[in-house]
């Protein structure tokens, strides 16, 4: 049949099915195909914390959402344009997320009596008018693949497992994605299993042809290429970007890398990646607990390694005593906290930004350290390099905050060349002449890094207060005051070594939005939308949270009102109010979901209306 | 992969320093209580370090918190006085990073068996190449006299004025159970045995655990007198010596034999048993080591001293090195541009 072609600026697709249906893979392949096509892409997986929830249940639904477009895409999208639902539960769970008139592609074989019962449907929604607001495309995918693969003598279970590629084929046709790259991927993946390779290729092509020929799909959509800087790209999750960042930072510092870590959601993939990097000379220790994870990293740092520990909220709680030790030892250490919903076990797989104040104040004694935060999945790479730079230059632990959204979501990463990245200059002390363990560099106030094995620099460091310069134990009143002040001054001094904050939009006026961390994308989209509507608002995103950029006070003074949207109850707001002694407005959401563009838009419009609009 | 550390490791050693006991002394005053068993452990450690032929700059002493853990300040090598219970993971990280170093840990019964208990069993299991000297004084000294995990049931302390209700840990049995590849016990009043054991621990590849009965003169004075004082120790202890029968007693007139798997004391005087009936010790037999360790709190049996077990097993840090060496020899090793690129990348013009 003749198909119509419709142009779109962007689209949001959600692949949903049972935990075992291969929806995560389908989503990843589709987002790579979109990147290759030239779109900007942003993704976020949404899966149950249960490993394999019972089949067909509402709580067992696993989904992967992709937003792609011809403009810059900062989030995984809000309302869905097209849903792929492999069974009744995945339809039921995702229906509220759909745009009106959205496309729903369902596997109608996933709507038998058992499926319907598990999804709590009394009647089959494919057969009544439940879905009349939408464009329903119901296809008996399992039956079709079973027929197409009948010659391969696969078991019914093996056959059914290819249905994700059938669904993927449909979506590839629907959005005009090239299939070649994905076929190549399949060839590599199933190189040792030609039968599965053939089955999946057949299913994939069958899905594509079905869509091309079927009258159910009268329209094909085109989403043009985005204006991206030229270069080499790949999609990357925040967690992989941190692992990569640590490895590259070590090389740039001419140090070996050590990671001491303990598995915890949603930070664990960093450990997975690093533990596979043996080819690159990386050492890691999967420790017996969170404390041993950071403690082993402190030991490796004493030995001259670029050392890191990676964790999430509950783990950061366990590490706080060790962070205090690293502060008084004045050894470099990178602590990555992939924030999740808390307190306690809380929402292990869901993002939140509620560890900022713990990063800032969560230690006994006066114990300041630098805190930085990544704004997107790929930015996790660059902020990890920044953490390494600050840690080694200032001989201090640094906390890098990311979150469950950045950690598991992806966006395109413009791949740098190793040689184009800046070196991280590191020098060990080797000269015994005049050496004192706590003498300081005049400019940075950093103490020397003298590692065991260096002749004639033998010294003992420890958790007891140090005497200034000599570093021997001292409990003297004046010395303690001096050392507390010196350690604080060292961290405060970093303010001269970090970028100034910048403001998008008017440089002064009524309303400034300040954001930090993983909410960047949603705030940026909201800002762009509102600016597009002619609203006079401004936006400042913070990458360095301690110390704050030195021009921030001046920036704040140029605006009448300041709004800080955060996934917490107002933690950056608290810090800014305390530092700058002025009231700040908050948009505070703690629902375990990423911040959404519309939530920021609504809040800003409400504020603008209070003032009678602008 | 070469790094800045290679420059340090490959620099010429300081051959003039490290072969003499005085090289390991520090200028500052040692601040343990007068009569503390710690002094003897410190002196023997310094003697053994001077005798090992290792450059001084290669030694590191790591400690946790407690009286024992002041140790690194009192010896002139690299040192780190860390957090309560955490000396072992810090030392593990350092050893994995720097297998070229000889790393020693000073810890106590509270530090390693109570707050650090988890680290203790896992470091033993992993067989990280460390020499762990556990000062067992069966009391919390630094916090001034509470019962510890090796205090005896019924013991009166500041936090058990009416008597301890817990049963104590048996450190040797715990270490053996956790897979420590070298397990020994000695006591502060016997410098020769201490030196012998410290030296063996230092030369052992893997996790070497040495429990040292250490008298706390202030809060638990005389706790080990029965086993350490000249007048009583021969009657109440038996030294485990590889390949030798277990003989003890003031006149070497008693021995330990195995009745099935149960150790029993027999007399060598009454004509019922001869030396040939006694257990001949084998320090490479972990079952035997466990039986010996479990004699510890049995008042009908002498308390074993010496080396319980020596097992030959690759250390964790050796395995790390071996794994890296293999993977770094593969094609594409150290190609970080390839790593950056990942498996699925594309060009935008």
List keywords for this structure.
heterodimer; A: 614 residues; Pyruvate-ferredoxin Oxidoreductase, domain 3; Rossmann fold; 3 domains; 7-stranded mixed sheet; 6-stranded mixed sheet; 36% helix; 22% strand; B: 349 residues; alpha/beta; 12 helices; 31% helix; 18% strand
What do these coordinates show?
The complex is a heterodimer of chains A (about 625) and B (about 350). Chain A is of the alpha/beta class and about 625 residues long. Chain A has a 7-stranded mixed beta sheet with strand order 11-10-12-13-15-14-21, sandwiched between helices. Chain A has a 6-stranded mixed beta sheet with strand order 3-4-2-5-6-7, with helices on both faces. A 5-stranded mixed beta sheet of chain A has the order 18-20-19-22-23, with helices on both faces. In chain A, helix 1 packs parallel to helix 6, helix 9 crosses helix 10 (about 270-275) and helix 17 crosses helix 20. The longest helix of chain A has 20 residues, at about 195-215. Chain A is globular, with a radius of gyration of 27 Å. Chain A starts with a strand and ends with a helix. The relative contact order of chain B is 0.11. Chain B is α/β, with parallel strands linked by helices. Chain B has a single domain, classed as 3-Layer(aba) Sandwich (Rossmann fold), CATH 3.40.50.970. In chain B, strand 9 (about 255-260) and strand 10 form a beta hairpin. An 8-stranded mixed beta sheet of chain B has the order 2-1-3-4-6-5-11-7, with helices on both faces. In chain B, strands 8-9-10 form a 3-stranded antiparallel beta sheet. Chain B has helices at about 5-10, 40-50, 85-95, 110-115, 115-125, 170-175, 190-205, 225-230, 230-235, 285-295, 315-330, 335-340, and strands at about 60-65, 80, 100-110, 130-135, 180-185, 210-215, 235-240, 245-250, 255-260, 260-265, 305-310, 345-349. Strand 9 of chain A pairs antiparallel with strand 12 of chain B.
